[in-house]
Amino acid sequence: MARELLEALDQAGVRLTGPRRELAALIARRTGHFTAADLLADAEQRSLGIGRATVFRLLELLADQNLVERVDLPDGRHAYVPCEPSHHHHLVCVSCGAISEVDDCGIDAVTAEAARRSGFEIQSHRLELFGRCPRCQNVEPRQ
Amino acid sequence: MARELLEALDQAGVRLTGPRRELAALIARRTGHFTAADLLADAEQRSLGIGRATVFRLLELLADQNLVERVDLPDGRHAYVPCEPSHHHHLVCVSCGAISEVDDCGIDAVTAEAARRSGFEIQSHRLELFGRCPRCQNVEPRQ
DNA sequence: ATCAGTATTGAGACTAAGTCTCAATACAAG
DNA sequence: CTTGTATTGAGACTTAGTCTCAATACTGAT
Ligand SMILES: [Zn+2]
Ligand SMILES: [Zn+2]
Ligand SMILES: [Zn+2]
Ligand SMILES: [Zn+2]
User: What is the span of the domain harbouring residue B141?
Assistant: First the structure.
């Protein structure tokens, strides 16, 4: 999966540098969502000597490329999720952070209807669903 | 509108203090979304002597009461929107910040379907639509 | 109106998040 | 290899947001 990130970056015409390869590997071995601070901590724990700015810069690059998506957690934190470029919605487990992609089933109709009623010209939207994944439901059923 | 905020706070059993009345009035005269920093700037501009912590504390109170809703802007900033307690989705104009409420037309069906397919137990969701309001479209048609 | 008890307040220290600058480095193409 | 340029890390800096605590101001009871 790190491979895919790097290939996509290559396509985009950016240099495949050491820090970028290392960060791509760290992202690949993450499960679920992660924050910039998480990634930075990963890098520091391995003494990779990667600067804070580099982490933020790479995340911005990946987000521009739709290789990760920004997710705003219910508590207000900014997180990232590795993402198929064609999908834009996620189900986020609030217990373990697991992610499930959501198909566009019906969303576009909703936005179109909202545009019609309001007169707005809709440029983008953000849909995030929060809950508990099947595994976490089993661990602690009900609440 | 400030009146409504204060009444609702009263109902919730919190004290109706001077700073809270003043902030409610400032919120009432805002149009569209605003950030904590915006509100703080309003207060400072009028030399009300209201501390930063008080602003954040009131916004948290209002959000708990569903009197304002947190909105995460596309650029990552956290903003607030005065809000009918029963509605949870907003159309946000990226030019002027104007807000339009979105009915639940079809959203609930989408989330139910996503829950069924994924096995997640959905607790909450967040839908934000971004675009340009009719007025801003007229000012600068096309982009 | 007064009072007492407690929620709330502002100041300011503090932490975390994110940006910016700049000289040094490392990539990639020739 | 060499060369030109994108990228880098350090660290200063800016916001955003939280926390503590002594002082203050509500509120409900008297
Ligand atoms: Zn989408
Ligand atoms: Zn889970
Ligand atoms: Zn809703
Ligand atoms: Zn507008």
Answer: 86-143
Report pLDDT digits (tens) over B77-108: 999 998 877 767 889 998 898 988 887 667 88
Whether B121 sits inside 8 A of A100 (CB atoms) is: no
Among B residues 75-114, those touching chain A with beta carbons less than 8 Å apart = 76, 78, 91, 93-94, 100, 102-103, 105-107, 109-111, 113-114
pLDDT in tens, B43-59: 999 999 999 999 999 99
Amino acid at A90: H
With distances taken from each CA to the C1' atom of nucleotide C28, the closest residue turns out to be A15
Question: For residue A12, is pLDDT > 70?
Answer: yes
B71: which 2 tokens? Answer: 């909105």
| pLDDT grade for B109, boundaries at 50, 70 and 90 | confident
CATH no. for residue A93?
A: 3.30.1490.190
Q: CB of A137 under 7 A from strand D? A: no
Q: Does at least one atom of strand C sit less than 7 Å from the CB of B39?
A: no
Q: Per-residue pLDDT for B32 more than 70?
A: yes
Same-domain pairing of B80 and B123 = no
Nearest to A128 among B125, B129, B133 (CB): B125
Task: Look at phi and psi of residue B102 and say left if phi exceeds 0, alpha if psi is from -120 to 50, else beta.
Answer: beta
CB B107 within 8 A of CB B127: yes
Residue B53 CB closer than 7 angstroms to strand C? yes
What is d(CA A43, CA A31) in angstroms, rounded to the nearest whole number? 16
Q: Give the dihedral sign, CA B64/A110/B122/A79.
A: negative
Ligand number nearest to the C-alpha of A84: 1
Residue B125, pLDDT score = 86
Rounded Cα gap, residues A122 and B142, in angstroms: 12
pTM here is: 0.88
Q: Is B70 on the interface with A (CB under 8 A)?
A: yes
Judgement on whether residues B97 and B67 belong to the same structural domain of the protein: no
Distance from CA of A5 to the nearest CA of B (A): 23
